[in-house]
Design goal:
Strand content: 15-25%
Distance between the termini: 55 Å
Helix content: 25-40%
Number of helices: 6
Strand order of the largest sheet: 4-5-6-3-2-7-8
Largest sheet: 7 strands, mixed
Number of strands: 9
Order of helices and strands: HEEHEHHEEEHEHEE
CATH class: Alpha Beta
Shape: globular
CATH architecture: 3-Layer(aba) Sandwich
Radius of gyration: 20 Å
C-alpha cells in the first residue's frame, strides 16, 4: 500500500538505501466515443475481474463517453454476469475468492457507500454464501465522484462506471487522484491515442489492449504510486552506482 510504502521509503532514506516502490493504484479506464466497444468491454472486464480484482494495475474507474455509455454498460454487465465464481480447482470457474474476510467487509462498505450516494447496482453487489470469501462481480453505474470507491483503491471485483462529455473533462478526472500506476484508453483515433498517452499522469498507459507487466518493459508508477521500475532495462538502474573517474597524464 502507499501508506506502508512511504514508511519503508522513509526508513530506507535514513540509511541512504536505494529502493524501488510499486505502491497502490486507482487506474482510470477511458472509453472514447469511437472505441470498439466489443473489444473494450471484453478486455476491460477480463482484467477487472482477474484475481477477483486483487491486482495493482486492475482497471478501477471506468470513464465512458456519454454517447456510448449505455451500450458499453450493457456489454460490461453481460460479461460480469457470465463469470462463474467458485473453487479455482473447478475447470469452469473464472473468478475465485478474496484474500481474507477484511476484503469482503471492504467490498460491502464500498458498495453501500456508493448506493447511499446515488449509484445504481447493475450486477452483483453482494457476498456469495457464508463459506470462504467470495464476492459477486459487481458493476455500479452513475457513481458520484465523492463516493469512496472513486477515491480509494478497492482491490476487489467492483467496477464503477461514469460518463464524460469532453476530452479535457476526462483527462482532468483521470489525473485527479494522487495515484499514477496504470491507465487504459480505448479509441480508434491515432490523434487521440497520442494525446491521451501524453496527457495522462501515470507510469504506464495501455491503449486498446492490456499490454503491461511484460518482463522486457518497464513496470512502475509515479506520484503516490511509487517510483522506480520492476521490469525492462530500467529495473537495473536501482542496483547500479554511477562512478566517474577522471585522469590526467603523470
Amino acid at each position: 500500500s502507499t501508506a506502508v510504502g512511504k514508511h519503508l521509503a522513509a526508513l530506507a532514506g535514513l540509511h541512504m538505501k536505494r529502493v524501488t516502490m510499486e505502491l497502490g493504484g486507482h487506474a482510470p479506464a477511458i472509453v472514447f466515443a469511437d472505441a470498439d466497444l466489443d473489444n473494450a468491454a471484453k478486455i476491460l472486464s477480463a482484467n477487472k475481474f482477474r484475481n477477483a480484482g486483487q491486482v495493482c494495475v486492475s482497471p478501477t474507474r471506468f470513464l465512458v463517453h456519454e454517447s456510448v455509455y449505455e451500450p458499453f454498460v450493457d456489454k460490461f454487465v453481460a460479461a460480469a454476469k457470465s463469470l462463474k465464481v467458485g473453487n479455482g480447482l473447478d475447470k469452469d470457474t473464472r473468478m475465485g475468492p478474496l484474500a481474507n474476510p477484511r476484503r469482503v467487509d471492504a467490498m460491502e462498505g464500498l458498495v453501500s457507500d456508493a448506493v447511499q450516494r446515488g449509484a445504481k447496482v447493475k450486477a452483483g453487489g453482494k457476498r456469495i454464501g457464508n463459506e470462504g470469501f467470495f464476492f459477486e462481480p459487481t458493476v455500479l453505474t452513475d457513481v458520484p465522484r465523492d463516493s469512496r470507491i472513486m477515491n480509494e483503491e478497492p482491490f476487489g471485483p467492483l467496477a464503477p462506471i461514469t460518463s464524460f462529455r469532453s476530452y479535457d473533462e476526462v483527462v482532468a478526472e483521470a489525473n485527479r487522484l494522487p495515484y499514477g500506476l496504470a491507465a487504459y484508453a480505448y479509441t480508434t483515433s491515432t490523434k487521440t491515442m497520442q494525446a491521451i498517452g501524453a496527457d495522462i499522469e501515470s507510469g504506464m498507459v495501455s491503449i486498446n489492449h492490456h499490454g503491461l507487466a511484460l518482463p522486457e518493459v518497464p513496470f512502475g508508477g509515479i506520484k503516490d504510486s511509487g517510483y522506480g521500475s520492476e521490469g525492462g532495462l530500467e529495473a537495473i538502474e536501482g542496483y547500479l552506482n554511477t562512478k566517474f573517474v577522471t585522469q590526467a597524464s603523470a
